[in-house]
Design brief:
The complex is a heterodimer. By secondary structure, chain A is an alpha/beta fold. Chain A is built from 16 helices and 17 strands. Chain A is globular and about 85 Å long. Chain B is built from 16 helices and 18 strands. The chains are: A alpha/beta, B alpha/beta. The interface between A and B is large, with 108 and 110 residues.
């Protein structure tokens, strides 16, 4: 039996023991995960530094802090999330108990990505554990050092039969995808996303696909350009542009292009010094293949700033491209690197038109002080997430569902959404074996009279909720009046 | 260009005009759909009589009533469903607008089944229209009279560019599945469900699959067996057993088997007379292929009751089978016919084991007075839904999400759930270009001090709602104290 088959079989067996069902067990596992981040920060940072040149503080800020917050939230809220959820009743079943009971799905496959390897691999894992599932964790092999550390550390802290780590590349992933899971959670690109969904279809396995795309960023010429550019610069060059929700390209009117370039240059200097190569907070491209790919994107556009690079160090300095045309190489694929193209447009109308020609992105950014501009952009486009006047930060709001639409993905997670996505929300209707008389109207032989009753009771149910409340209120008023009368005498 | 390609292209072009966005338009189309149902009842019932031998009243009761209720609910609630949904804020978003914005997906493909060709095709249509989508409606060719009627009549009521009916069999469906949709809603069998999902994967199209399976029905020996059997018999024989949520088979202890058989016989007589063949309310099997398939399932078991059939008329009488084991033919596939096998088990534990050895069903039925037993079944099994002490009626509560899990399907619908399923629920965050100072803790250069501030904020648990309530309480107390003071003067 292949290693992958074995891991899945073991996880299923462990799930079937039922030990992940009690909330106490899930909380214990989550607390263990908490300990991992408290105790192993150094090993985690060291590995990420080798993979992506993230500084220790950068690792905490952009990877582990968010996870700690999610774990805290899950531990605090688990009881509430896992409890039966009451449901509105219609008249026919007023005397019954109706609720939605969340339950585990079974064995979940989590395929992580390399850009925020802990962030996007462990966040779904938190949801999987909280929902009571077993989970097979497949970290991305592209972040070589981190996947080794994950394989080593996770089994030391969390139940290694319920949550096995399976490392490997394409062949190992393909072998995994042949197995049967109860849900597959994939973070990565659209091409592989299709392959994953096709494999999942063979077992009728539901999927969550967190993909990507080109996230547009429109700057209104009348806004505070200095602050806008500061936020965009931060959003773009964090992790050297290797963020699924990085502002991919800018759309703005030609009249502000020079100003935008100036402000971005200023912010780059503020954040990463005159010499980003020596700055500990400036990252590196993950590997040679991506380095080459990104550098090739610059070819047919005008470099307005930056351009410095060093292949042996996978270093590409922050680059700004100006007067970029829609046919340019850099506009044909998600950049996932520190290139910021600026495409001049004549205004909001042209920007919206341009955006709608492309695939629906994972995030859409608009910078403007004008509510009308923001609302129009929101109303006339579509995307996974929509953020006005900042970048990236909607990711950290646990009460907002995070996910894509169309080519940018399907399904969503974060906070309670992770729990719900990896649970089965089972509708439960508990009736009693009495009041059988009420049911006579539904039994054959069907007569016009019986049918009339059903019509009346069934079709009038919507108003009844409100009417019922009014009746109750009236009754209470009468009772109150009677009681008051007695007291006043 | 094929007819199917043309239809999809036309629907997409119409969607892109933006005319489905205003709620007024959607309400108008829903009202027209309502008129359609009201004015064309004759045509609808006629088609159902020809397809499935459904009586006029049965058609009203089991197909039209639920669509009318869904239309009424959707029209009443549309403004609420489509409104921005505010989400819980955290310390970072106190000053921002944070909400989920529902928008149409685009072009939705709805593939309907043959067993309830009107309700199960029109119910998702109601949700698709309410959510502002364009629709390609593909009714089942097996219920050919209904399919023809839908194609002929629907365009007389609804916008015929936005909501197109495409008729046809397997080749036409395959051609449709090659096109790109923004969501596919399929109701039918598991085998085709896999094909639909595979086709959808090529375009990264999300799917809702309402499939089936063998829905078990456990009867506790200590319950009111008479009432239980009444409800089970009714549910089983609606539409001649051709219901995805029909109780497929019974599990009970040997000591009650005879009583169960007796009660079922009594109910059959009560509902359908001594000769169901002559009863107006007893349906027919859809076609020869299904007839032969169902008859073949009786092999190897004892026909305790019924078993009479008339191939020329597509008639199979209500039949109860005994001496049924897990290996019997009738236990290898979803029956979808009027055969009710009884499998004897030693008690609820063995019943649970039997159920868990098989695929997760669309619904699980348990008949018992014992709350503990019911809770045990819920805790130790999984299914799309669970109903205690009745059958089928959970479909009537539009607040309960209706859908399967595992091989019984993915996704859910009914009422608001259809609206949500066929919408893009877009996360929106509207910030201002001010208070830039607050952002310094996130900008490089990353320092330990900045990080500790970030930690403090991210890991603090600020319950905004509680804080607001406390502030309100404090103000009220202050006011009350003030008022009391004045009165005491």
């Amino acid at each position: 039996m292949a290693k992958e088959q074995q891991a899945v079989a073991q996880a299923r067996k462990a799930f079937e023991t039922g030990r992940s069902r009690p909330l106490e067990y899930r909380i214990l596992q989550l607390k263990n995960l908490q300990r991992l981040f408290a105790e192993r920060q150094k090993e985690i940072s060291d590995a990420i530094k080798k993979d992506l040149n993230k500084s220790e503080m950068g690792v905490q800020l952009y990877e582990t802090l968010g996870l700690e917050g999610e774990i805290n939230l899950a531990i605090r809220k688990l009881k509430e999330w896992a409890a039966p959820r009451p449901v509105e009743k219609n008249l026919l079943i007023l005397s019954d108990t109706v609720y939605i009971q969340p339950e585990p799905l079974g064995v979940v496959l989590i395929i992580g990505a390399w850009n925020y390897p802990w962030g996007v691999t462990v966040q779904p894992l938190i949801g999987a554990i909280a929902a009571g599932n077993a989970a097979v964790v497949k970290p991305s092999e592209v972040c070589v050092h981190t996947s080794k550390v994950m394989e080593e550390l996770l089994p030391l802290y969390i139940d290694k039969e319920l949550y096995p780590v399976v490392t490997g590349g394409v062949p190992e992933t393909q072998e995994l995808l042949r197995q049967r899971f109860d849900h597959i959670f994939y973070t990565g690109n659209s091409m592989v996303g299709k392959v994953i969904m096709e494999a999942a279809a063979k077992h009728l396995t539901p999927v969550t696909l967190e993909l990507g795309g080109k996230s547009p960023c429109y700057i209104d010429k009348n806004c505070d350009i200095s602050i806008a550019c500061r936020r965009i610069t931060w959003g773009k060059y964090t992790n050297c542009g290797q963020t699924c929700i990085a502002p991919d390209y800018i759309l703005c009117e030609p009249s502000i292009q020079d100003r935008v370039i100036e402000e971005i240059k200023k912010s780059i200097k503020d954040f990463y010094t005159e010499n980003p190569k020596t700055c500990p907070d400036y990252g590196r491209i993950i590997n040679q293949r991506h380095f080459k790919r990104i550098m090739a994107l610059v070819e047919d556009s005008t470099v307005a700033a930056g351009g410095d690079n060093d292949e042996s160090d996978s270093f590409i300095a922050p680059i700004i491209l100006r007067d970029v045309k829609p046919e340019a190489k850099v506009m044909q694929e998600e950049i996932f690197g520190p290139l910021l193209p600026i495409l001049p447009v004549s205004g909001l109308d042209e920007a919206i038109k341009f955006i709608n020609k492309g695939e629906k992105p994972l995030a859409l950014y608009v910078f403007s002080g004008d509510e009308k501009v923001i609302n129009r952009m929101r109303d006339e486009t579509s995307s996974g997430g929509f953020l006005a006047n900042d970048c990236l930060v909607h990711y950290s709001v646990a009460s907002l569902p995070f996910g894509g639409v169309g080519n940018s993905g399907m399904g969503c997670y974060h906070g309670k959404f992770s729990f719900d996505q990896l649970s089965h929300l089972r509708g439960c209707l508990i009736k009693k074996l009495n009041m059988e008389g009420v049911n006579n109207m539904r039994y054959p032989p069907h007569t016009p009279k019986k049918l009339g009753w059903v019509r009346f009771l069934f079709l009038k149910t919507d108003g009844l909720g409100w009417v019922g409340k009014m009746v109750l209120l009236a009754l209470l008023a009468v009772v109150a009046a009677v009681v008051l009368q007695k007291y006043l005498h | 260009m094929s007819r199917e390609q043309l239809a999809v292209q036309q629907a997409r072009r119409s969607f892109q005009t933006g005319r489905t966005k205003p709620l007024g338009f959607r309400l108008q189309q829903l009202r027209r759909l309502q008129s359609f149902i009201r004015e064309r009842k004759g045509d609808i019932k006629d088609a159902l009589q020809k397809d499935l031998g459904k009586s006029e009243r049965a058609s009203e009761l089991y197909e039209l009533l639920v669509v009318e209720a869904e239309l009424h609910l959707s029209m009443t609630k549309l403004a609420e469903w489509a409104a921005p949904r505010l989400v819980e804020k955290n310390i970072f978003t106190l000053l921002d607008e944070v909400y989920v914005w529902s928008e149409p997906l685009g072009v939705v493909l709805i593939i309907g089944p043959w067993n309830y060709p009107w309700s199960l095709t029109l119910l998702p249509l109601v949700g698709a229209i309410a959510a502002g989508n364009a629709v390609i409606l593909k009714p089942s060719e097996i219920s050919s009279n209904s399919s023809k009627a839908i194609e002929r009549l629907l365009p007389l009521y609804l916008d015929k560019d936005l909501y197109q009916v495409v008729e046809g069999g397997a080749p036409e469906t395959q051609e449709l599945l090659k096109q790109r949709f923004d969501h596919i809603f399929y109701t039918g069998g598991t085998a085709v469900g896999k094909l639909v999902m595979e086709a959808a994967a090529r375009h990264l199209t999300p799917v809702t699959l309402e499939l089936g399976g063998k829905s078990p029905c456990y009867i506790d020996k200590d319950c009111d067996v008479r009432t239980a059997c009444r409800r089970i018999t009714w549910a089983k024989l609606i539409n001649c057993g051709q219901t995805c949520i029909a109780p497929d088979f019974i599990l009970c202890e040997p000591s009650v088997q005879d009583k169960v058989l007796e009660e079922i016989k009594k109910c059959v007589k009560e509902f359908y007379s001594d000769s169901p063949k002559t009863s107006n309310d007893y349906g027919r099997i859809i076609n020869q292929r299904q007839f032969k398939r169902i008859m073949g399932l009786m092999e190897g078991c004892t026909v305790a009751f019924g078993g009479d059939a008339d191939e020329a008329r597509g008639y199979i009488g209500p039949t109860v089978l005994t001496n049924v084991t897990g290996d019997s033919k009738v236990m290898q596939e979803e029956i979808f016919g009027p055969l009710l096998p009884i499998v004897t088990v030693d008690g609820v534990d063995e019943a649970i084991q039997f159920i868990n050895e098989r695929e997760k069903p669309l619904v699980l039925y348990v008949f018992s007075h014992d709350d503990k037993l019911i809770k045990k079944v819920i805790a130790e099994t999984s299914s799309g839904a669970l109903v205690a002490n009745d059958c089928v009626v959970h479909f009537l509560d539009s607040a309960l999400p209706f859908g399967g899990v595992g091989h019984s399907g993915m996704g859910r619908y009914r009422g608001r759930h259809t609206f949500d399923q066929l919408s893009n629920l877009r996360s929106c965050m509207i910030k201002q270009l001010k208070m830039e100072g607050l952002n310094s803790m996130r900008y490089p250069p990353h320092t330990a001090e900045k990080l500790s501030w970030a930690r403090r904020f991210v890991l603090s648990h600020l319950n905004v709602r509680r804080l607001r309530n406390m502030v309100v309480l404090a103000i009220l107390t202050g006011l009350a104290a003030f008022v009391v003071q004045r009165f005491l003067r």
